[in-house]
Amino acid sequence: MANPSVTSNFSLTTNPLKEKEGEEMVKGSKLRPRPSAKKLIGLDSKYKELICSLETEEGWPPAFPIRKYQDFWQFEWLLPGILSMHENFKPRPSDILVASFLKSGTTWLKALTFTIVHRNKYSFSCHPLLKLNPHDCVPHIEYHYALQDEQYLETLPSPRVLGTHVQYSMLSESVTASQCPIVYICREPKDVIVSYWHMVTRYECLNRPFPFTRAIELFCEGRVPYGPVWDHVLEYYTNSLQSPKKILFLKYEEMMNDPIDGVMRLANFIGCPFSEEEMKNGLVEEIVEFCSFNKLKNLDVNKYNGIGNVKNDYFFRKAIVGDWQNHMTAEMATKVDKITKEKLHDSGFTY
C-alpha cells in the first residue's frame, strides 16, 4: 500500500447523505462485490479430464490442492477459469490489465489504477472504493471465468480495469496482441512468502497449523499458486523489455519509496497523464493518500466485509518493505536469496 507519511487535506469522513450518494454511485457504476467461490471446490467443467491428468500437490492452504500446468502451479479449483480465460477472453482496446504474482502489491496497484482512470468520473467523497474492496473495483478475470460469471465483465463500461495473476505465457494472443496496456508489479520474494503465509493461516477452513518452515520449503520449490515466482516475474520482465509500450514493469519497493513518481509513471503509461493544473492542485498527492494503506484499511468495507472464507481485511496487514526480517532466520533468508540469484542469473533483473 501507499506510503503512510504522505498527507493531504483529504478525509474519508462521510455523512448519511454522502453514504446514500455512495450507494447510488456504486449501483450506477455496475460494479458489485465478487461472488463467493465456496461452491466451486470440485471440478465440473469441460476441462475436467485435462486437469485431472495434471501433477497434483497439497496446496497452501492445504484445503486447496494445486496442479501443475505448463510449468506453473495453479489452484485446482481455479484452473477451469484460467483455461477458459485463455481460450475465450477478448479484451477491448480500452481495457487496462493489472497483473502480478500473489501478495506483491496487487491491492494497492488496483486501487491506484482504478482511481487514476476514473478520476474525472468519481469524487473522493463519493467513490466506489469507499464502498467496495479494490478487488471488486478491479475484478480478476480468471476468477469470474471459474465461477462462470464472465458475462459480468461484459456489463462493465469502458474503460475497464481488470486484474489477473496468470503468467504472461497464459495470456491469450488476443490480449498480448491487443492495444490494451499491461501493468505488472513485483515484490521481493521473502516479503511475498511472509505476506502469503500470514494470509493463508487466517483462512477459516484451515483446520491445522501450517508451519512457516513448510511455507518456505514449498515456495523455494515453486510449489505455490501461480509459482514459481521467479519464472512468473521473468516472463513479464523480459516481455516488458521487448515491448516497453505494452508492459509497464513496476517494483513494489520503488513504488513505496516514491509513490508520487510511481503514480505519475502509471498514469502516463496507461494514457491518463495528469495535466499541469491537476499537478498544481495536488491531485497526485490526493490519489496517493486516498489509496494509502491506512485509508483503505480503516474503511468499513475492508474491516468487516469479504467473500466466503476470505475477509477483506486479509488484504491489509502491514504493507511495509522488509517485514521478512521479523520472521526469517539468517539460514532461511540465505536459502531464498540463493535460489533467487540462481533463477535470475543472466536475466539482467534484480529486485
Report what the structure shows.
The chain is of the alpha/beta class and 351 residues long. The protein has a single domain (16-344), classed as P-loop containing nucleotide triphosphate hydrolases (Rossmann fold). Helix content is 43%, strand content 9%. It is built from 18 helices and 9 strands. The protein has helices spanning 16-29, 48-52, 79-88, 106-117, 134-137, 141-146, 151-155, 173-176, 189-200, 212-220, 229-242, 252-257, 259-269, 276-280, 283-290, 293-297, 300-304, 330-344, and strands at residues 56-57, 66-69, 72-75, 96-100, 161-164, 182-186, 247-251, 306-307, 310-311. The strands form 3 sheets. The protein has a 4-stranded parallel beta sheet with strand order 5-4-6-7, with helices on both faces. Helix 13 crosses helix 15 (283-290). The longest helix has 15 residues, at 330-344. It is globular, with a radius of gyration of 20 Å. The model is unreliable at 1-17 (pLDDT under 50).
Tally of discrete structural domains: 1
For the biggest β-sheet, the strand order reads 5-4-6-7
The SSE string, one letter per element, is HHEEEHEHHHHEHEHHHEHHHHHHEEH
Residue fraction in strands: 5-15%
Mean pLDDT: 86
Secondary-structure-based class equals: alpha/beta
